[in-house]
UniProtKB/TrEMBL annotation, chains A, B:
One of its GO terms (molecular function) is FAD binding. The keyword ATP-binding does not apply. GO terms for biological process: respiratory electron transport chain. Its EC number is 1.1.99.39. SUPFAM superfamilies: FAD-binding/transporter-associated domain-like (SSF56176), FAD-linked oxidases, C-terminal domain (SSF55103). Its cofactor is FAD. Keywords: FAD, Flavoprotein, Metal-binding, Oxidoreductase, Zinc. It comes from Stutzerimonas xanthomarina DSM 18231. It catalyses: (R)-2-hydroxyglutarate + A = 2-oxoglutarate + AH2. This is D-2-hydroxyglutarate dehydrogenase. PROSITE patterns: FAD_PCMH (PS51387).
Length: 469, 469
């Protein structure tokens, strides 16, 4: 796309010396995220250090018809931050400061390159809490979290990233700097444009500053792991606990997932009884009474036959160990080259949906091992299919392409989402119509055209084609 | 605008018999909301009973270039639902059913004409809770709540209406039916168009169905009313209590407001000490320990000199009585023909902002009595100025027009909102640029043009001019 060295020289004048890289290593590193399907091929990586520099880059890109790709922690799972077509990657690695803290409003003003764990630590140092948390928190950046509306393991209590964005500064595809919502709790002055930029995957503009809300720290977090006789029993267990407690998490995983994690040898089994499914739930045991309520509900679930065995953490160490049963799954099964899909339906539909996927895959590919886990309290399922030993990768992924179609057709039938929390990017753009109607997609493209008339902002992400200018 | 009786006859063919009204009483009733500035002058009132009928009306209005005004409970305070220019009013009074309940997802599918209190009662009957609450809950409708992103007295804990909308069906200005977000908790498939319609005041389309989230019921709600020696002391009190408890409300009012309410004779004084300002806060006293924590914090605030006196409710009756001190203010002071304004700043800026307004008004109009109250935990202040006895209404409102300008200039200086929760409608459209930049307004108009290219949806609301088609 951009081979002219004169253009690179122009770009260099817009930022500080040394802040444009074109060496092969940098292009390869900054041109990709955690997905592997697309070969990185950017023209250059640029590192702005101020909002003004971002604006200059966007204005220059408009004049020169250069495509820009935003780059945060590059932990995305939908190739939304992959530059595979000669784009210029705009990395926010040097805009990584927490600029301001406001204790009365409980907010922190962040540059987009602030790492999630950095904000979590900052909050803790202030006696507060940033509750959005997920496996990649150690490297994902706030700007990227906002671009994908990141979710994770505490959504049932705290919601998605969207809930924690008090205000946003963005540079639109036209180069305008907008200051959206001004960190207010109540602001009824027309369309809340802030909401459009959350989850837009950088296709409307760049987030250049974000005021994030913080929360009081949770007290005495306590986890239970419960084994159930079948998947259906997980639902009344969720219902029973939600009636009594404000849950901070409600996760599930299958015995197949547990066996793999226990096979590592560094995590103790939760209890002796083998069960086909497990629920992990967490709550604040603020008082003795609260903990007793949890135990009473547990006993009630056992009496009802919904739970076969269970354990409740009695210390921070036990809490951590129970969480490892869930958190280690993804990494552990990665050795089996899994096909992965991140989908959601409403909570009530989860059991029927899961059974239907199991049946379709089992009928056609009986040798495929399906590992389910996910955030069941949000209706968010992570479907993982392990490559059978001895099957070639190509054959496996060929078969998985068929599975993909079945999964999305079933998602559509159940009125669910083809991407619960990973985004659309390039990996799911060709399937968007399974979740969004033709009319919706047309309105989305019209909005894109209003903010980015020249189609320079992360083109080819979310939508297959550039919107008409 | 629409004087042709043939058009009325066309309109009648789109709905059930008797569901178009043109008598003077109906035009007057359905043509206005709680604001008084604009004389109602609609051409007709139409009452659709189905989504299909709404679509027919919108398509017809596009063909005939007829302006439509949505009408809910008509309790708005910004004239967003006023038809002053021959528009056809679309009332949702006959689309007022709760269609579906889902206990596992804790959602209720509502038609737009469901009254807020009806949903609150429905939730209670199911052992759940709909937490958005405000003075007009007995007549405001869900569709209108969504159109204005209604807030109210529990925002500090539960957020605005926005937080409770799981899914929306809307008919856009082009007549398309969109099913937005499908009631999912996690859905990362492009722009969240649902968010655009929340707070759009009917300028992009009509909400024709909404899936609302419900919550577990609060336990043993308990209120404290605390008297403070000055306004500034309210802030550390908020801070101290928020550190220890999840507050469900944090309101404030001045002695001037209290005196007026006590003057009614039907509400007992909270305690004997006279104080210039009062805070009302509420929390769930789920356990004995929690109530003791509240008392200890109260004592700490007294020791620090932030609180002069206070009382904590010990029964449901006492809780109700304490709330009356706050809830009766608006109705009580209405006898003084007050100038009202609903504004917000970030919480930390509240004291300086309030003092600056007091100073400006006091300097120019020393005979004006200013009554402050509001949702201070959200930075939302209700400014009320009472008409001095003996001053003519015209003179008073003439002077208040000047006050308006000072208030909005001060709001702009403090980076606040000219409308915290009442919306823009017609009453604040000419002041929009005090809160939103020229570029933001241009993007809003472009979005409006995408959803409503012929400008038939509630024209003249939010924006002064019709967007270019």
């Amino acid at each position: 796309m951009m081979t002219d060295p004169a253009l690179i020289d122009e770009l260099k004048t817009l930022v500080e010396p040394g802040k444009v890289l074109t060496d092969a290593d940098s292009l390869n590193t900054y041109g990709k995220d955690w997905t592997k399907q697309f070969a990185p091929a950017p023209s250059a990586i640029v590192f702005p250090k101020s909002i003004e520099q971002v604006q200059s880059i966007v204005r220059w890109a408009n004049e020169r018809a250069i495509a820009l790709v935003p780059s945060g922690g590059r932990t995305g799972l939908s190739a939304a931050a992959v530059a595979a077509n000669g784009e210029v990657v705009v990395s926010f690695d040097y805009m990584n400061q927490i600029l301001e803290f406001n204790g009365m409003d409980r907010t922190a003003v962040c540059q987009p390159g602030v790492v999630t764990a950095q904000l979590q630590q900052f909050a803790e140092d202030k006696g507060l809490y940033y509750p959005v948390d997920f496996a990649s928190a150690g490297s994902s950046q706030i700007g990227g979290n906002i671009g994908t509306n990141a979710g994770g393991i505490k959504v049932i209590r705290y919601g998605m990233t969207r809930n924690w964005v008090a205000g946003l500064k963005v540079v639109t595809g036209k180069g305008d700097l907008l200051e959206l919502n001004k960190d207010l709790i109540k602001n009824a002055t027309g369309y809340d444009l802030r909401q459009l930029f959350i989850g837009a995957e950088g296709t409307l503009g760049f987030v250049v500053e974000a005021t994030m809300r913080l929360e009081r720290q949770p007290t005495n977090l306590t986890a239970l792991v419960l084994g159930t006789p079948d998947f259906d029993s997980i639902m009344p267990v969720l219902h029973a606990f939600q009636d009594k407690l404000d849950l901070t998490a409600f996760e599930f995983f299958s015995d197949k997932a547990l066996v793999k994690v226990l096979g590592r040898g560094d995590v103790p089994a939760p209890f002796e009884t083998d069960c086909p499914f497990y629920a992990l739930l967490e709550f604040e045991a603020t008082t003795e009474e609260r903990a007793e309520q949890a135990l009473a509900t547990f006993e009630h679930c056992v009496e009802q036959g919904w739970v076969l065995d269970g354990v409740m953490s009695q210390s921070e160490q036990q809490l951590q160990n129970l969480w490892k049963l869930r958190e280690y799954i993804s990494e552990t099964i990665s050795h089996w080259t899994p096909y992965k899909n991140d989908i959601s339906v409403t909570i009530a539909k989860v059991p029927a949906f899961l059974k239907e996927i199991d049946a379709i895959v089992g009928e056609h590919y009986p040798d495929f091992e399906i590992v389910w886990f996910g955030h069941i309290g949000d209706g968010n399922l992570h479907l993982n299919i392990l490559k059978p030993d001895g099957m070639e990768k190509d054959e496996f992924f060929g078969k998985c392409a068929t599975v993909n179609k079945w999964v999305f057709e079933t998602v559509q039938k159940y009125n669910g989402s083809i991407s619960a929390e990973h985004g659309v990017g390039m990996t799911k753009r060709d399937y968007l119509e399974y979740s969004r109607s033709e009319a919706e997609i047309a309105y989305m493209k019209a909005i894109k055209a209003a903010f980015d008339p020249n189609g320079i902002m992360n083109p080819g992400k979310i939508f297959s084609l550039k919107p008409e200018a």
